[in-house]
Fold this sequence. Notes:
heterodimer, A: 126 residues, mainly beta, CATH 2.40.50, five-stranded mixed β-barrel, three-stranded antiparallel β-sheet, B: 411 residues, alpha/beta, Peroxisomal Thiolase, Chain A, domain 1, nine-stranded mixed β-sheet, two-stranded antiparallel ribbon, 11 strands
Amino acid sequence: MSEREFSVKSFHDFISEGKIMGVKCKSCGTTSLPPRPICPKCGARNLEWAELAGEGTIQAYTVINVPLTHMKDKSPYAVGIIKLDDGPSISCPIIDGSDQNLTVGARVRAEFVQEGERTTLHFKRN
Amino acid sequence: MKLSRSVSVIGAGMTRFHHRIHIDKTSRELFVEATLDAAESVDNGFELGDVEALFVGNFSSDAFEHQAHTAPLMADWLGLRPRAATRIEDACASSGIAINMGVLAIASGLYDVVMVGGVEKMRNLTTEEVTDTLAMASDDIYEAATGLTFPGLYALMATAHFAKYGSNWEQLAAIAIKNHRNGALNPKAHFQSEIMDNAKRLGERRGVTFENEMEFLESNLNPVIAYPLRLYDCCPISDGAAVVILAASEVAKKFTDTPVPIVSIGQASDALSLHDRDDLTTLYATRMAADQAYQMAGITPDDIDVADVHDCFTIAEILATEDLGFFPKGEGGRAAEEGRTALDGDKPINPDGGLKAKGHPVGATGAAMAYEMFKQLRGEAGDHQVEGVRFGLAHNVGGSGASVAVQIFRR
């Protein structure tokens, strides 16, 4: 695991293994997501992998009615910014989310969704 | 920090922004039209040959028209060969940042006269294709892949702002109503009708009567695009170009008795992904760029008499008027509801109709803001002139706030 590069490919590879992997900066202690080779907080390159628990809170949400082409058959769909309990935030689809059942501050947990060959990270309300 | 040489706007021009009238034109023709309008606005006459360098703001003629390398193309069509021509791409802030680069090019001493413009020809594509193309200005891997559109990104800011400050959709509607009212007074605007006129027209077609704007805006004739944002919370998809001519202030007098000095500029960046920002209810790059500009000009937000701010979505005008320091955080929506940002309010915002009603051919928007400031500060804005303007501010945002350009203009 520690030999993998802090890259987009590694992020996706880990997701397909059912893990949300971020990086922890050994200089400033910040955990960031997605993995990248330079700490976005302090600029240090002294990083290590950190597995994130996949529990978090909705910071913001929307329900999209006019979709991107690649999401056309799923419209309308909900997307949120999830603040993970481990620190960083991430944008993700929210399973079964609607403007009726989503609120800022609601608790959500990660779901790994298999779509053909790909595994993608989603969140679901607790 | 100060500019080492004073720079002024001596002329400005633009096409009308529209979704239909430019259908048979390409971006080069729109850019030529805006340039000729700009040259004509120079009081003592202007030869295009006076231009020493050209900066072109353009987001994505690559995707919209299958045409890259746009700056030398524009220079060629203006007869400016072999002068330096540079394209600037910072999404919707492309030409606002191009203006800053033009100012720096003159302040450096290298040039005396520089032309800066912006252009976007978006309507070759369908709404769906435009939505995909605009999404390229977000993080393709970590945002667009989740299905986030640009209305979606600003909708996220809206739900976060509502939750934090108790702001609401009615305040967003107040901004749309105000900006359409201003657009109705601007002959260059994409939409030149008040929302109540649209409500009457569309209502008649369906046999419905709307008592007021809110009744119309709450109806299914104003569909949700990305909750909580509805159609009238979003700027339209427009074609258009805008051009300003900049000159070192010591040579500006040769061209006009009333040049408009750009007293300061500011620019900042932020995380491309909205989710990487500490606070989703503020555009940190706006605050940074504005602070730089206020400091360089030696003034405060209270000194600004009129501003064009980046209202690609109604929520963006709330964020902008707060982050530029015009109103305390959380109060931007209320200020709009109370009429404080109307043409006759104490802080008129987007007198030209803003992106909402004037239109938003993305690469042209920053230059069109400078066009408006040039007109406002010379008292030439016609029916949407704000009275007694001394300082004007233009605020141009790229994407969901990852790049911001600000300029302050003085009478």
